[in-house]
Amino acid sequence: MNALLDVRGLTVELPTERGWIRPVNDVTFTLAPGETLGIVGESGSGKTMLVLALMGLTPPGARRTGEAWLYPRSSNGNRSGTDNSVQRSTRRTDLTVANSEQIRAIRGREIAMIFQEPMTALNPVMRVGAQIEEAITVHEARVSAAEAHRLAVAALERASVPEPALRARQYPHQLSGGLRQRAMIAMALAAGPRILIADEPTTALDVTVQKQILELLVNLQRDLGLAMIFITHDLGVVAQVAARVAVMYAGRIVEEGPVQEILRDPRHPYTVGLLRAAPRLERGKVTPIPGTVPSLNALPPGCAFAPRCEFRRTECDERVPDLRRVNAEHTARCVLVAAEGALST
After folding, report:
1. Do residue 153 and residue 194 come from a single domain?
2. To the nearest whole number, what is the mean pLDDT of the chain?
3. Residue-wise pLDDT tens digits, 160-190
4. For the whole prediction, is pTM greater than 0.85?
5. DSSP string, 219-256
6. Do the Cβ atoms of 329 and 261 come closer than 8 Å?
7. What range does the domain containing 155 cover?
8. Domain termination residue (choose one: 242, 277, 309)
9. Cα-flanking dihedrals φ and ψ of residue 294, to 5°?
10. Are residues 156 and 96 part of one domain?
């Protein structure tokens, strides 16, 4: 299957008082049409900055290097029902060097994002329906106000918002956390994107609402044929929505492969630590990873996880390990990959 998004060696550098840091460091992955890729890691591992770089939303002064190729949609790929041939590109686009006009055309229309906190992402002084209408008209300028409103209500209905016409007239503070997140999903999908980025979409929601949002995303991804990048710190959650997972630590991908295989046979000590730290039904089974994520301006010269790793060797401190191939679909950035057998969880 051809790639829809092909990221090669993507690096993001940010200026600080102590010099440049790299919250995203030499990241490579592909995303196929209709595929869901889970990205997992602790806070500060670079997950959000990675997708913000793809969306052209990095902070002022940031430098992006590497490549992030977005391939064009097929001639029949416009699901919105309107003619948008002017904005549809027939050539692949490198998101790292795209100009502001290209990024504006791509953002929302080709790649859309559900942000982590809907209360801060939604405009508190605009009605929910008006915000969704704006997401439509910025890409479909010839759509009338009445048609934009109809499409906004339809988007809310597609996101399983009850009484969508009523909710469209309300302000964000009048909606519950779950409904605000559904409104964000409706807004993200309103312009018919091909790639949906979900940045920890169940954060701050209670357990039952989390389950509903996850089921909604899985159903929408399947029904609309979306490719999805799903960001979380919980391997258990990503197992419910993704077939493939990339584990990030200190800006780098340290393990990637089929999610069930990585859950069953993790080959990087950090992945093992995440699994041990996941809540389980058995009392006393949670084992936290010792230490903390290192500061990006004080990374060790070798493996960034080495100071926290129980399997640390001398060679771990000498240089950053390369991604090593476990099998055709599974890689890990660890010197132990050459050793036989799985790490103990």
Report:
1. yes
2. 89
3. 999 999 999 999 999 998 999 999 999 999 9
4. yes
5. HHHHHHT-EEEEEES-HHHHHHH-SEEEEEETTEEEEE
6. yes
7. 5-242
8. 242
9. -70, 150
10. yes
